[in-house]
Structures are given as C-alpha cells and as structure tokens.
Amino acid sequence: MSGGQDRCHVAFQPIGPALVVGGSGQIGGWLLESLARRGLPAVGTHQTTPAPGTVPLDLGDAQSVEALLVELRPPLIFLPAGFTWVDGCERDPVRCDAANRREPIRLARLASRIVPEVRVIHFSTDYVFDGAHGPDDEEAIPNPLSEYGRAKLAAERELTELLGERLLIIRTTWVFGPERQGKNFAYQVARTLREGKPLVCPSDQISNPTYSPDLADAVVELALRSAHGLLHLAGPDRLPRCEFARRLAQGLNLDPTPIQSKPTAELGQTARRPLNGGLVSRRLSTWFPNHHPIRPLDQAVADFRATAKPPWRDPLTD
Ligand SMILES: NC(=O)c1ccc[n+]([C@@H]2O[C@H](COP(=O)([O-])OP(=O)(O)OC[C@H]3O[C@@H](n4cnc5c(N)ncnc54)[C@H](OP(=O)(O)O)[C@@H]3O)[C@@H](O)[C@H]2O)c1
Q1: How far apart are CA 189 and CA 246, in angstroms?
Q2: Where is the RmlD-like substrate binding domain (predicted)?
Q3: How many CA atoms does the CB half-sphere of 37 hold within 13 Å?
Q4: Which of 176, 278, 292, 295 allows an S-S link to 186, with CB 3.0 to 4.6 Å?
Q5: How far is CA 258 from the centre of its chain?
Q6: 183 Cα nearest atom in ligand 1
C-alpha cells in the first residue's frame, strides 16, 4: 500500500484510508465529513455509539486495535478519541489515564510498527494550563489542575517522544457545533432554555468557543500539508462561559433570562478548571496567513442553527 509513495513530496499525500479513531464523536464526525468532502478515503471508529460508516473499536482492546491497523494500514491517523468528561475523569483517574494517555500511546506504538511512516494527529486541550495567565500560546508552561489535564499533557509528551515529526498535536478548547450525539455545550444550553429551566454557568471561566466544522476542516488541511509539532487552534473570540451561553441563546432565538452567572467557587464542580484560560497561537498564521480558519462566534452560531439538521441533531427540536 505504501510502495507507490513518492518520498520527494513536500506535502503529505495519503494513499490508504485515513483512520479517525473516535469518528462517532463531535470532532471525529466533522473530520470524517471534511475528508469525505475532499474525496479522501477514510474509516472512522465508534466505541458505544455507531455513526454512519464507523466500525467498532475499543482502545482498551489491544488485539482489536492491532487487527484494525493491520487491515487498514492507515498512513494518517486522527486521534480525537478519549474520555472527555472532565468531572468523570476526576472521579475515575484510572479510567482517565487509560483512555486519555495509555491507550492512545499503545495505538500509536502499534501503528508505528505496522506502518512505519504513519503520521498521527492528536487532540489535546487548554486544560493542560492552570488559567493563571490566559490566553496561553504554544510556548506557555503547562500546569494542569485536573486528572484530565494531567493525562492529556502526559499523552502529548509521550506521543512526541514516540513519533517526533510524524506527530501533530492540536490543542483546542470549548468545541461546539452540530453533532450526532448532541452532547456539546450548545445543545445543553438549547435544551435547558427550551425547557425553561435555570441554566447556572460560571462567570469566571474564560476561553474561546471553537466551531467544530471549521476546526476539523483546518486540521485536515494541516494534516495534508504535513504540519507537525504543537499548534493551538481555537476560535477568535475569548469570553466567559456565561457570555458564550447568552450568545448561543441570542443566535438560536431562545430566551436568555434563565441563564444565571455564578463564580466557579460556588459551583461545586468536581474537577478544578482553568479560569483565565483560552488559547492563542504563535504558529497559526504560518499555516493560514490570510484568514483565521475558525469563524467568529456569532457567525458560527448562525451556521450551527442552519446546519444542525439530520444527520446532525437539531438543537431546537430534539
Ligand atoms: N470538546 C471540547 O470542547 C474539547 C476541548 C479541548 C480538547 N478536546 C479534545 O478533542 C478530542 C475530541 O473531543 P470531542 O469533543 O470530539 O469528544 P467526544 O465527542 O466525547 O468524542 C470522543 C470519541 O472517542 C470515542 N471513545 C471514547 N472512549 C473510547 C475508547 N476507550 N475506545 C475507542 N473510542 C473511544 C467515542 O466513541 P463513542 O461516542 O462511540 O463511545 C467518541 O467517538 C478529545 O481528545 C478532547 O480531549 C475537546
């Protein structure tokens, strides 16, 4: 499968199917969409929730991981899979470490053995930072406050050691957009406001809402151009979580009155969060010199409203 690859290429040209581990998830769904739009063959995986065209894969099952890698021999692996529930990670640090560090590392190690030229795109988070001096760029020193942040940072470091220049790490934050499972913050806001229930959200957690279709498209572009190393990729607006909720309500034409702001200290969240958080990038303009690849929040919310129809969940009717 790799025999015809022209090693003189500057840009990386995938020649087998790309593999999206976690293709049933929010970002993975849009990665598959972006690859399909470009006519690039790809296979996605799900763990618990099948999506059209995904195959089952549990990262904890090493034999199945190896069998799938041998079958597909993917030259490019996107790795958005993980245990992404931050408070759940705090309650179950063993599962958190397995799903967010140990199992992705094992997959990368197996993939390197089976397809030595494999390139991996791994997804990480601004929760590797403590939120003391945000927004943080790629040079900022990580200091995670939570089990989730610690596992993601450890995965970044071990993957870098293993893969070197065959690795691109994308740190992102507050991802929202149309999704099949309807789990992300935009759906939570829409559902709660539609039901007229109070929506309590932190007034002092600040970050960048990031629109998933744009994020995925930019990541596929970067992968095809063989970007490597560490890149911060998040939306251009940076604001408190409550303001994000209000902008969603406005864009979805929902009454924002039930939105109540409270400081994090009063919320009793299990995991500590970075407060003055968010991401900026020193490197993004090298890859996208003429535009920011993630559209501004209000445009993204308008697109969310227009696009979130089957096969994606509709936040206004679900
Ligand atoms: N969403 C955000 O705001 C955000 C912010 C910063 C960073 N990130 C990072 O971006 C990545 C993707 O986030 P997301 O929002 O797309 O997450 P998501 O919607 O929760 O999707 C996670 C995906 O991983 C799969 N998965 C979970 N455990 C697995 C396991 N043990 N074996 C195989 N597959 C497994 C899930 O499959 P099933 O659903 O089928 O079970 C799903 O496809 C994560 O690495 C996360 O840390 C996300």
Answers
A1: 9
A2: 19-289
A3: 11
A4: 176
A5: 29
A6: 19
Alpha-carbon distances, residue 318 vs 178, 207, 310, 314 (angstroms): 12, 27, 11, 6
Q: pLDDT tens, position by position, for the chain (318 residues)?
A: 333 333 334 455 557 899 999 999 999 999 999 999 999 999 999 999 999 889 999 999 999 999 999 999 999 999 999 999 999 999 999 999 999 999 999 999 999 999 999 999 999 999 999 999 999 999 999 999 999 999 999 999 999 999 999 999 999 999 999 999 999 999 999 999 999 899 999 999 999 999 999 999 999 999 999 999 999 999 999 999 999 999 999 999 999 999 999 999 999 999 999 999 999 999 999 999 999 999 999 999 999 999 998 888 998 887
The two tokens of residue 304 are: 């969310």
CATH of domain 18-182+211-236+278-297: 3.40.50.720
Answer yes or no: is the C-beta of 123 below 6 A from any ligand 1 atom.
yes
Backbone phi, psi, residue 188, to 5°? -60, -45
Residue 28 alpha carbon, nearest atom of ligand 1: 16
Looking at the CA of residue 85, tell me the nearest atom of ligand 1: 20
Taken in order 231, 237, 242, 244, the sign of the CA dihedral is negative
175 lines ligand 1 (CB under 6 A): yes
- CA distances (Å), 184 to each of 210, 213, 221, 277, in order? 11, 13, 24, 19
Q: How far is the CA of 22 from the centre of ligand 1 (A)?
A: 6
